[in-house]
Amino acid sequence: GSGKTYTMFTSDHSVKCDEDDLFDASGKSGIASWGIIPRVCAEIFQAIDFRKENVAMGIGASLSLSYIEIYGNEVIDLLRNGSACGHSRVAASRYVLEGSAEVAIESIEDVLQLLNVGEKLKRKGATAMNQRSSRAHTVLILKLTQNSRKTGDKMTSRMFLADLGGSEKLKKSQILHDQSNFIVEKIIHDGNAPQQSSQRENSKNQLQEAVYINLGLLALKNCAEALKYKRRHVPYADSKLTMMLSEGMGGNSRTTVLICGSQEADQTAETIDALKFGQSCGKISKTSTSSNIKMLCSLVKSIEKEISDCEEEIEKHERWEMKETTRIDPRAEGEARTETWNT
Ligand SMILES: Nc1ncnc2c1ncn2[C@@H]1O[C@H](COP(=O)(O)OP(=O)(O)O)[C@@H](O)[C@H]1O
Ligand SMILES: [Mg+2]
């Protein structure tokens, strides 16, 4: 292990979830010693509470969490006792993204409790099936729904937090590296695994497992590559993992990739590969803004132009004038009356 799960999930259940303790910056306790997922949740709750307290802002918010595991072609709901998410190839990501795997959360305690539920299930799977837990990908989705009490507008945002399965086990299994690569490519290109010869039959399951993890990682790599070169087609559909993460990878999103490297010498090749992947991700630039934002930006620009045109026009014509007019009122008995008009 290189620390991926540790980085994402670590939390200290003994810490009392008093908000002041939580944000203690000393680093010894509270949030500073937590992993990214519980930390993100705590910060979101802090922001929600702030908005609730400042009633004048008029913003209401609710948060929900989905916690799933992708293992090969299987996508299971870690918060519903490992039940399958959807039934068809496409259905799983739709099932999850449309909210069928959601659980509403209201506090950081809720989150820690749900993480515990998922963790127990992962551990159960790990003993039942050969190291499943470190090989599967875990995806946690936070959905924030905000509504403005003044205008009634609603806004939904999603955050995807993924803990990817390792590729390191592939080499340690008894399968030749190039053999499995061949199979991965075959599956990606034709959708079928090649015929297994009788000698390979023994390690078929093991191989299948390795292929599945790498299928997700390879598809992820290919998507990152396509995004980097701004290709028209990004092969999200090549794996369940990339289908699930597609919304968070391209388009109107921000993505952060964290690479964990092992210090062990015999992991050098994998570590270098991982670093190269990170380097390649760093070259992806934002490809598009959502049409909503584009529309608002152009609207603001056109209004600004109108205002500056008006100002120019005003400046051109604006000056103080003093005009003296002498008007003789016949009724004023020949007396001239001078009136001064200021314009
Ligand atoms: N920064 C760290 N500090 C202390 N222990 C760590 C740290 N990173 C990882 N570990 C420990 O190393 C082991 C492997 O880490 P893990 O996160 O499970 O690896 P991975 O998910 O990459 O396979 C775990 O027992 C974990 O507690
Ligand atoms: Mg792990």
From TrEMBL:
PANTHER family: KINESIN-LIKE PROTEIN KIP2, KINESIN-RELATED. It comes from the Eukaryota. It holds the Pfam family Kinesin. This is Kinesin motor domain-containing protein. One of its GO terms (cellular component) is kinesin complex. Gene3D superfamilies: Kinesin motor domain (3.40.850.10). It comes from Proboscia inermis. Residues 293-320 form a coiled coil. Residues 1-284 form the Kinesin motor domain. One of its GO terms (molecular function) is microtubule binding. Keywords: Coiled coil. InterPro entries: Kinesin-like_fam, Kinesin_motor_dom, Kinesin_motor_dom_sf, P-loop_NTPase. Belongs to the TRAFAC class myosin-kinesin ATPase superfamily. Kinesin family. One of its GO terms (biological process) is microtubule-based movement. Signal peptide: none annotated.
